[in-house]
Write a structure and sequence with these properties.
The chain is of the alpha/beta class. The protein contains four helices and nine strands, in the order αβαβαβββαββββ. The strands form two sheets. It has a six-stranded mixed sheet with strand order 4-3-2-5-6-7, with helices on both faces. Strands 1-9-8 form a three-stranded antiparallel sheet. Helix 2 packs across helix 3. The relative contact order is 0.19. Bound molecules: inosinic acid and magnesium ion (MG). Inosinic acid binds next to strand 5, helix 4 and strand 8.
Length: 191
């Protein structure tokens, strides 16, 4: 067998280096609850969901389909500068919003809040643009490494342990975003 066909025989979804923490069903049940809550709380308001690329794309796609309201979506892409593996809090906007958020009710949608440095800076940037309100929804909240402890998260999917997690939009060097579940990487050196 050639090296190329051996590679395609390996299942990504049953990779033994992954320990599943939240299954597809658990994720969908929790997102349905968040959708119901947001539907109640934003009734009659001009709502825009702002996804932070790339990690939030799957969460945003599922969340928006369980919010039974008129809404629009927009995206931002930011790069956080890291000093080694530690986030420095400096954020560069790689892609800005396509539309103004003045007088809109904004929910920023993130995949995971870790130190909170990236989101704090992003909320500071968005805070100067005249929105009626800005709230934060994160699929995962990893509170242990939090540096910006004052960061208020309004909607959380799951509170997770301080491990490196992948799947459902979260990546390790670009890989694993397509897993339909959340997993911890057992041995990050072979991830
Ligand atoms: P922070 O809150 O500024 O430290 O950075 C949050 C960003 O780091 C997230 O949006 C993710 O892109 C990334 N990140 C943090 N923890 C993890 C993880 O466990 N797996 C994958 N990406 C992570
Ligand atoms: Mg992110």
């Amino acid at each position: 067998m050639s090296a190329e066909s051996a590679k395609t025989d390996i299942s990504e979804f049953t990779n033994p280096n992954l320990e599943v923490l939240y299954s597809e069903n658990q994720i969908q049940d929790r997102i349905a609850e968040l959708g119901q809550q947001i539907t109640r709380e934003y009734k009659g308001l001009d709502l825009v969901l702002v996804g932070v690329l790339k990690g939030s794309c799957i969460f945003l796609a599922d969340l928006m389909r369980v919010i039974d309201l008129q809404l629009t979506i927009d995206f931002m892409a930011v790069s956080s500068y890291k000093d080694g593996t530690v986030s420095t809090g400096d954020v560069e906007i790689l892609k800005d919003l396509s539309n103004p958020i003045r007088d809109k009710h904004v929910i920023v949608v993130e995949d995971i809040v870790d130190t909170g440095l990236t989101l704090s800076r992003l909320l500071q940037i968005l805070g100067s643009r005249g929105a009626s309100s800005i709230k934060l929804a994160t699929f995962l909240d990893k509170p242990d490494p939090r540096i910006k402890t004052e960061l208020k998260i309004d909607y959380t999917g799951f509170v997770v342990p301080n491990r490196f997690l992948v799947g459902y939009g979260l990546d390790a060097a670009g890989r694993y975003r397509n897993l339909p579940f959340i997993a911890a990487v057992r041995d990050p050196s072979v991830a």
